[in-house]
Write a structure and sequence with these properties.
alpha+beta, 2 domains
């Protein structure tokens, strides 16, 4: 059954207009509380957040949302939530600084994903990261193909640390460009050097040849690129 559109119900329900001022006050409190937490935690950027810190921030966000919009949620108990989380954060970081095993379990370890222009297969298979995501990270750092990369390490904060070959040492490699700029084939359209799209291994194929990668047994290939990196 259709009901009549009631603007007062949609926008304010049964709340008085004066509650808007209270919402502004509550929101300002939540903003200051989250800001102070980040300031007191010593972090200077979101990219520096560990998994544990991200969980803390999400918990803060939930508490901030509740105190901002619900009139029956008092501010003082929510302030206690912020204080408790800050104490727990400080205690956890204190423990992490004194236990490498706990640090490794909480934050994880850096993972080498590319070495000498090739994927580290055992690393990629254990990560929740697709090749498309990794390619995007590489493109944003000015990389056109894997042959330009001497070493790529996925850090615990999700960033990729990149170490590239000198121009004279660049080797033919797999293109990291998106599909419109990279053709994947199973049968070589011309004789030349191709790279396995799964691991980056280069092999020379004849016209019309279908082959399995000698490194990972994949049957998908893309033309190898050997251009040097533009700084």
């Amino acid at each position: 059954m259709l009901t009549t559109f009631d603007p007062a119900r949609v926008f304010l329900k049964d709340l008085p207009l004066t509650f808007l001022g209270e919402v502004a006050l509550r929101t300002a409190f939540a903003y200051v509380a989250v800001f102070l937490f980040l300031k007191l935690s010593g972090r200077r950027g979101i990219r520096q957040l560990s998994l544990f810190e991200l969980v803390v921030i999400l918990t803060l966000g939930s508490a901030a949302g509740d105190v901002s919009f619900y009139e029956d949620v008092p501010i003082v108990p929510v302030a206690m939530v912020f204080v408790t989380l800050l104490v727990m954060y400080r205690a956890t970081t204190f423990a992490i600084e004194r236990s490498k095993r706990l640090e490794s379990w909480m934050d994880g370890k850096p993972v080498t994903v590319i070495e000498d222009g090739l994927y580290r297969l055992e690393s990629l298979e254990g990560l929740n990261m697709s090749s498309s995501e990794l390619f995007m990270e590489l493109r944003q750092k000015g990389v056109e193909h894997l042959g330009q990369v001497r070493l790529a390490i996925l850090e615990t904060d999700g960033d990729v640390s990149l170490y590239c070959f000198e121009p004279q040492d660049v080797r033919p490699g797999l293109s990291v460009l998106p599909p419109p700029h990279r053709t994947v084939v199973q049968e070589a359209p011309a004789e030349g050097l191709y790279c396995c799209t799964r691991c980056g291994w280069p092999e020379r194929l004849r016209l019309g040849q279908r082959a399995k990668c000698s490194r990972c047994q994949s049957e998908n290939w893309a033309e190898a690129i050997s251009r040097t990196r533009v700084q």
